[in-house]
Amino acid sequence: MTTHAGQRRVSAHGTRTPDERRADRAARHAFRSRRVRIGSLAALLLTAASVIAAIDVLSAMFGTSLHVIAYRELLDVRWDGWVARAISGGLVLVGLVFLLAGLLPGRSRVVPLHGRVPDVVMGVSRRGLCRAIAAVAEDATGVSRVRRVRLRPRRVTVVAETPVRDARGLEDGVADAVRACLERIRPLRPRTVKVRMKRREG
Predict the structure, then answer these.
(1) 95 vs 101: CA distance, rounded Å
(2) 165: phi then psi, degrees, rounded to nearest 5
(3) Which of 52, 104, 173, 177 has the most CB atoms within 10 Å of its CB?
């Protein structure tokens, strides 16, 4: 079963106020993924290449070139051969990976929440949100245990166990509980709620 949850609350006039919209933009900006790991890797590679080039240039300026980069061997390379093409293709792929990492948003560890003023941004950790959803789902009628809560950008999936032989209708209660939880927490991005009930053996 799939239902919708986390819709934006609106003012009495039917729309969010300008301050609330600015607060949402501030929260989205504050908690977006920074791509720290891949950014650090790119910075490390560029720094290493710059240091090697600087050593070669400075040593050549003082008349004792260290030849950290084997220029003479590079002159003998067949640039139309398969080795050169493979290396060039690999470098192009690495560049595309870094480019896509910079352009595409990553998965943040914090879920931004709706706010009322731009100077106060709020968020909840993904683990904390999953735990809150699991807690309310376990309190729903007919649920003995929540196996898994999966949080995706536009969907929350809850897999729960039930001792009830005929579990028809139980999914509605779990979905309502999760939807009410999301309405209280107010995540910035609305998510659909999907619930799957598993028969508990024994």
Answers:
(1) 10
(2) -70, -45
(3) 177
Note whether 81 and 96 are within 8 A (CB). Answer: no
* C-alpha span between 36 and 122 (Å, rounded): 21
Q: Are strands 2-5 and 155-162 parallel, antiparallel or unpaired?
A: unpaired
- Compare 14 and 23 and report the one with higher pLDDT: 23
CATH superfamily for domain 2-32+111-199: Cation efflux protein, cytoplasmic domain (3.30.70.1350)
| DSSP structure string for 149-166 | EEE-SSEEEEEEEE--S-
Angle at 177 between CA 170 and CA 21, to 5 degrees: 145
pLDDT tens-digit map of 57-83: 777 777 776 666 666 666 666 666 777
More reliable by pLDDT, 11 or 62: 62
